[in-house]
Write a structure and sequence with these properties.
The chain has 20 helices and ten strands. It has 498 residues and is an alpha/beta fold. It starts with a helix and ends with a helix.
Length: 498
């Protein structure tokens, strides 16, 4: 057997020092092994495999003594535990005078958890490492799809996707989901993707790319867990939705509006000039919610998002902060304030949850140098008065300043009503009515009713019923002012019934 000079020198080197060789076995077809990999396999005497479940293994040189770590998969509870055991054993094998050749499917650094970590740890231990390149699954995958991945494509691990709640990539770009090794994984991936994509979204399952057994299936997204061909070499191609469906695409639109060649009006805006617009869009979103107008809610939330991103772009243009600062800040804050969801904190009941929430917020303020003189300082002064009252009462209740039961609230309401009756001057009466409204807000809180929303709904009911009276008057050829109070009351009662 003739051995290439480079391979011979490499083998002689391995015989005299500790050494780890990371070898890529390619996508599955033995013809796609690199010349360097094949020369090494012909000259070596021993080979360690992450798994024997790879088509090339059957065509390895017959003289090789082959070992594999497949048994570890049967005894460990997670892939992470398997990979850690493999990494430790390969490092130990690499300390032998002859070192070790460790082979993995595809390329050692493409969709491979063990090889990069072996390299990192080996170098920290002063061990020499050589990487023998292998063709990854990506090249034959793109050939099977007849696809150029540029200008962009998302590469996604199916196992990570299955554990998340929404896709971690923008739907406005195509995605390649690798390692769909079972119908169970395909089912979890399907459910995740359908949180953003239509059930009928056309996708492509590619099995055994780069081998004679290659199969490409065109399916609807909801069908991907029904394929009889799913196995260790299965991947999913998800074509992009329309470009305007991604958050990043909208960021580009907003940035373009503010660019020198953009819109003159948008370029002139400041945080203060957009303040009223932000408030108006918020109220329009609330109005759509109150009206149970689903299409209206969708549209108004879009308008509200536009204002938020305009404010963010203005800050970016002025060097204040960027959208990444906004997202990082709120992401960190929400995860920190939910240790019962993202950590191991045990919640006893709702009151315990709220108390811990306030404790965490107080700790945040202390760490950022924004400690407040009062627990109520964090309630926005821009809130509508009724909503502000509710916030004040909730904050105070979290530290125990509250009635023991709702009867105390009802008694306080009666007391405030009597004080309104007893007030004799304008300022005194206004103050007592304010106290009465504050007590009403507290009663709403006890009954778990949002007072601001309740009043807005009451306003809507009044508007509809009064419009009924106006319409009835017009039907009689009369003005509303021509109706008697009794006539108005009768029509009001009719409106309530209808």
């Amino acid at each position: 057997m003739r051995i290439a000079p480079d391979a011979l020198r490499f083998v002689l080197t391995m015989m005299t020092e500790t050494h780890i060789t990371l070898l890529g076995l390619g996508p599955g077809d033995p013809n796609l092994l690199t010349r360097q990999a094949w020369d090494l396999l012909e000259s070596a005497t021993e080979l360690w495999l992450r798994t024997r479940q790879h088509p090339v293994v059957e065509r390895l040189p017959s003289h090789l003594q082959v070992h594999a770590f497949d048994s570890l998969y049967d005894n460990a509870e997670t892939f992470e535990q398997v990979y850690e055991q493999i990494i430790q054993q390969v490092l130990e094998l690499g300390r032998r005078p002859g070192g070790v050749i460790y082979a993995v499917p595809g390329h050692p650094f493409v969709a491979e958890a063990t090889a990069p970590e072996i390299l990192r740890r080996a170098r920290s231990l002063g061990m020499s490492v050589q990487v023998i390149e292998g063709l990854s699954f990506l090249e034959p995958m793109f050939t099977a799809l007849e696809l150029d991945p540029f200008p962009h494509i998302a590469l996604v691990d199916a196992l990570q996707l299955a554990l998340s709640h929404v896709p971690p990539f923008p739907p406005g770009v195509p995605a390649l989901v690798a390692q769909i090794h079972s119908t169970a994984v395909a089912s979890e991936v399907k459910l995740n993707l359908m949180s953003l994509y239509p059930d009928e979204h056309p996708v492509r399952l590619v099995h055994a790319a780069g081998t004679p057994q290659q199969i490409v299936e065109d399916l609807a997204l909801y069908e991907i867990d029904r394929s009889p061909h799913t196995g260790l070499l299965t991947a999913l191609y998800v074509p992009a939705l329309a470009p305007q469906t991604s958050f990043e695409a909208f960021l580009e639109v907003v940035a373009h509006l503010r660019a020198p060649e953009g819109c003159p009006w948008d370029r002139e805006q400041t945080h203060r000039s957009l303040r009223s617009d932000l408030l108006e869009e918020t109220y329009e979103a609330l109005a759509a919610i109150d009206a149970d107008d689903v299409d209206g809610v969708r549209e108004e939330l879009g308008d509200l998002l536009l204002l938020i991103l305009l404010h963010t772009q203005i800050a970016s243009d002025d060097g204040e902060f960027t959208i990444t600062d906004v997202l990082s800040g709120v992401n960190t804050k929400i995860v920190y304030r939910h240790p019962h969801v993202f950590g191991d904190f045990q919640v006893k009941d709702e009151q315990h949850l709220l108390q811990n929430w306030e404790r965490l917020k107080a700790q945040e303020r202390l760490e950022t140098g924004k400690a407040e003189a009062s627990l109520l300082d964090g309630v926005s002064q821009a809130l509508p008065a009724l909503a502000q009252a509710e916030k004040y009462q909730k904050r105070a209740a979290r530290v125990g300043f509250d009635w023991p039961d709702v009867q105390g609230v009802l008694d306080k309401l009666e007391e405030e009503l009597q004080e309104v009756h007893q007030a004799v001057e304008g300022e005194e009466r206004a103050a007592e009515i304010g106290d009465l409204l504050f007590a009403v807000a507290n009663l709403a809180r006890w009954y778990k009713v949002e007072p601001e929303s309740a009043l807005r709904e009451a306003n809507l009911r009044f508007r509809r019923r009064f419009a009924y009276i106006e319409q009835a008057a017009r039907a009689q050829g009369r003005a509303v002012s021509d109706l008697t109070l009794d006539e108005m009351e009768a029509l009001w009662q009719q409106a309530k019934k209808s």
